Amino acid sequence: MRVQKFGTFLSGMVMPNIAIFIAWGIITAFFIPTGWTPVAALGGSADGSVVGVVGPILTYLIPLAIAIQGGRMVYDIRGAVVGSIFAMGVILGSDTTMILGAMICGPLGAYIIKQVDRIWDGKIKPGFEMLVNNYAAGILGFGLFLVGFFWLSKLFTGIALALGSAVEFLIHHSLLPLASIFIEPAKVFFLNNAINHGVLDQLGAQQVKESGKSILFLLEANPGPGLGILLAFTFFGVGIARSTAPGAIIIQFFGGIHEIYFPYVLQKPVLFIAVILGGGTGVLTNVIFNSGLTAPASPGSILAVLFNTSRDSYLGVILSVVLSAAVTFAVASFFLLTSRKRDLANGGGDMTAAFDKMQANKGREANAATAGLFANNSPANEQESEAALGGVGAGTTTATATKVHNLVFACDAGMGSSAMGASVLRNKIKKAGIEGVTVTNKAIANLSGDEDLIITQEELTDRARQKNPNAQHVSVGNFMNAPQYDQVVEQLKNQ
Asked: 402's torsion region: left (phi>0), alpha (psi -120 to 50) or beta?
């Protein structure tokens, strides 16, 4: 959970700025000397006599935007200002892209000014607040700028060059497919945004600046492994997993919401082997064909992948998706077929049954059932409800004793899966004729504490409960068609 939170913080700095990466990728694809329509004034000249805009956007705009976002996450606008000054020192003091430095200096500068403000909080005489606050931020920013310019820029440059050299070593020795051993399982444990936007984007951007494309943008974003898993369940799965897999394919492959296939893998952990082999196949294909993207594919839709594909990489990119899906499908199908009779006999292929079994093995209450516990307000039911909430006990104001008005679907990034889940539930509530209930989607990190009911995927519920322990929490496995939605709708009717 701590790793997830740290990863979410990293991706939280980058994801709001993905549009800048995409715009920069389009400019790169069209206007660099090897692009579709080279224009020296925009893409620079081959001999370096004309700088263009591709380099300055990557050198200044992208790192600065990330630093501002990171500072804002720690200490609002004041943190964003000081964090950006700190990051600018690192950016100007280095001759390489300082996305890494911005991701560290932005939040760090915000944290420092936050601690400085606490020193004289409540001690400033009326009328001098603006004077003290502005000069405190300005003087601290000046000092941090110098530290970044003269010292930290050299440190971060060394780290960036070392990481780049390590990636180049893996590429030149055809070892990059081994990265799938770590990336594919990490994705399924909801670290996909952290890996893609917290690590790979910055290394890939540097490669694009040097060669016009990067294979690193495809390490995590390739939709092939997820497609292979869902196809295997479509043909050889059982229970709810089989019935929901066809619809999930459209959302995962074309919508780019990879989170939808994670529960299918978690239901049968041996399928980690399938996604690892499939992901490695896709990476190896791109290595062989020297293919890559000009910008991050976010979301990881096949449409976004093809849109950002370098003009000389379409064959390799398309083959990488097809072959990774084929290998994942073949391996996953083998495992599903070998356990099919057992799954049919004991319901092990049913995602709901698998979740209940997992919760029983952990010795914890099945949060997925809590939505149905509030049909009436008898004291006995309220006590059962509080027990099912796992930690919200007697004497605490909980959602069990209040009506649900603010319902939130929360996920890691607050965009893809939560937006889709909220849309599904919102339609169900509308069809039921229920009014006075708002359904929104948020990132878990942005939960404010005023939510009455929070719906999350199973692996993220503990983090959501930490942010708002007084809300009613409902865990779902397959958020596209979770039975808990109907239980929530029934609860809303009864209230």
From this structure: beta
User: Is the omega angle on the peptide bond into residue 16 within 30 degrees of 0, that is, cis?
Assistant: no
Instruction: Choose among 259, 168, 182, 257: nearest CA to 215.
Output: 168
| Enclosing H/E stretch for 19 | helix 18-31
74, 107, 152, 287 from 9: Cα distances, Å: 10, 10, 21, 31
Per the CB < 8 A criterion, the answer to whether 412 and 460 are in contact is yes
Residue 296 tokens, joined: 């991050």
Residues with active-site annotation: 411
Query: pTM to 2 decimals?
Result: 0.67
**What Rg value do the Cα atoms of the chain yield, rounded?**
25
- DSSP label at residue 14: H
Beta bridge partners of 411: 443
Cα–Cα distance for residue pair 96/258, rounded to 1 Å? 32
What are the helix (H) ranges across 173-313? 180-186, 192-195, 201-211, 224-236, 239-249, 262-267, 272-289, 302-307
Eight-state DSSP code of residue 493:
H
Q: Is 165 exposed, middle or buried (0-12, 13-18, 19+ CB in 10 A)?
A: exposed
Positions in the chain short of pLDDT 50: 349, 354-400
- pLDDT at residue 447, as a whole number: 85
The span from the CA of 492 to the CA of 490, in Å, is: 5
Look at residue 325 in the predicted model and tell me its pLDDT: 96
- The identity of residue 255, as a single letter, is G
- Asked if residues 418 and 477 have their Cβ atoms less than 8 Å apart, the reply is no
Q: Count CA atoms within 13 Å of residue 420 on its CB side.
A: 20
| CA pair distance 400, 478, nearest whole angstrom | 25
> What's the order of all strands across the beta sheet hosting 472-476?
438-443, 406-411, 453-457, 472-476
pLDDT in the model for residue 413: 67
Calpha distance 279→225 (Å, rounded): 6
